[in-house]
Amino acid sequence: MPQVKDLKIKIFADGADIKSMIEAYKGSVVKGFTTNPSLMNKNGITDYEAFAHDVLKNIPDRPISFEVFSDEFNDMERQARIIASWGKNVNVKIPITNTKQESSVPLIKKLSVDGLSLNITAILTVEQVKAVKEVLNPNTYNIVSVFAGRIADTGRDPKPCMIESAKILKPLSKTDLLWASSREVLNIFEAEEAGCQIITVTYEILKKLAGVGKDLTELSLDTVKMFYNDASKSGFKIVGTEKQRV
């Protein structure tokens, strides 16, 4: 039976709800955090810097990734250097391209040479992983985020891509491969088998970790009870016609 305690992969929580982040920080399962502008917007955050500093005040000693949001590389570089100054535990998230599909690799190289710890994000192909691998500073801690969940959303099995990505990045001992956009608890075990060092999970998935290894017969009974209790609470009735009742 699989057990969370036996996992070697690091579980990072992905979100932008400060209360949930602090709660996860107080536990022992979550080893780091990631967020992005979309998650911040979803949670009603209007002041990026204030939110980031609040997070870092409460979580001072685990890796946290904050993302640039400019579409112009000069400004992207400016944002990256400011974000990097916020704390030693900060990884600066740089998308693999801008919205014009212009490669960010030259900027990644420039920032990495200068010693910034980066998290290269929105990667979906092996070719993108290869390009990033060639420019990352081997002497700094970096993360390469491959969006396995989004690959799966296209009907493709992401595992071959993740296995190949792990092989490509192996020479970079200080760089972690991250399985991003996970969809279910099973992805955690798949990510470890594929050779990933990190997986990001939502807080909804974190809550499901309590069910890892649960007896399936017991889970079947729990499911039946759930259906029964929900039907009872709803007050559903099946009366039928007079003919059907005979």
Describe this structure in words.
Helix 6 runs parallel beside helix 8 and helix 8 (159-169) packs across helix 9. This protein has 246 residues and is an alpha/beta fold. Helices cover 44% and strands 16% of the residues. The protein has helices at 18-26, 37-42, 48-58, 73-84, 105-113, 126-133, 148-152, 159-169, 186-194, 203-208, 216-234, 242-245; strands at residues 10-14, 30-34, 64-67, 90-95, 118-123, 142-146, 175-179, 198-201. The protein has one domain: Alpha-Beta Barrel (TIM Barrel). The protein has an 8-stranded parallel barrel, surrounded by 6 helices.
Describe the structure concisely.
This protein is of the alpha/beta class and 246 residues long.
Number of domains: 1
CATH homologous superfamily - what is it?
Answer: Aldolase class I
Helix content: 40-55%
Overall average pLDDT = 96
Share in β-strands: 15-25%
Number of helices: 12
Oligomer: single chain
- Report the biggest beta sheet as strand number plus sense, adding barrel if it closes: 8 strands, parallel, barrel
The appropriate CATH architecture is Alpha-Beta Barrel
Cα Rg: 22 Å
Global shape = elongated
Structural class: alpha/beta
Cα end-to-end separation: 50 Å
Q: Tell me, what is the CATH class?
A: Alpha Beta
What is the third-level CATH name, the topology?
TIM Barrel
User: How would you spell out the order of helices and strands?
Assistant: EHEHHEHEHEHEHHEHEHHH
The total strand number stands at: 8
